[in-house]
Amino acid sequence: MSVDVLLQFIEQYGYLAIFFLLWLGIVGLPVPDELVVATGGLVAALGYLNPYYAFLAGYFGVVSGLSIGFFLGRWVGPPMLTRLAKKKKLGPYIDRSTALIQKYGTFSLFISYLLPVVRHLVPYVVAIGGMTFRKYALYSYTTGLVWALAFYFLGYFFGNHADHIIAVSRHYGFITLGVVIALIICVIIFRYCCIKKRAKKAREGDQK
To answer: Is the CA virtual torsion 172, 175, 177, 183 positive or negative?
Structure first.
């Protein structure tokens, strides 16, 4: 799904579209979570939605969807994981999620946000492994906040180029995401300096 299609959908249904597209990511909708969050930023930049509410809709959509995965792991347990592992499309991702947790432990919650599909399976697997929800929420929700902010501002500042940047980030992970975050910080600082400079000139003009 392209940015243009998502843009029309979100323009029509607003905050609910952002929330449910991300919340339903747990069932495997063919829409990249990153692109939905970025499009929410783009719609906010165009003035169709309130910037704060658009971000919150995206953030709560992401963490609520991932939380469902955690509780499914707690309630349903290994039998469901065994059934999913038999599917050709999901089997490799489950193996990858399990290997990630075995290698990095709790830190896998951070890494999984950069890995499509894996990010939805890791909460399920860590819940089966006995991780408490309090610990899961502490690490996952904090990482989710940083992740959502990065892609929201990506859409807010870079608009229709967001889908190309996201496609690259899926191949190069941390490196590209780090570059994106650095660019966004630079843009924010630049805009802040411009605002301060204009405000200073306005004050000087009033004094004259």
So the answer is: negative
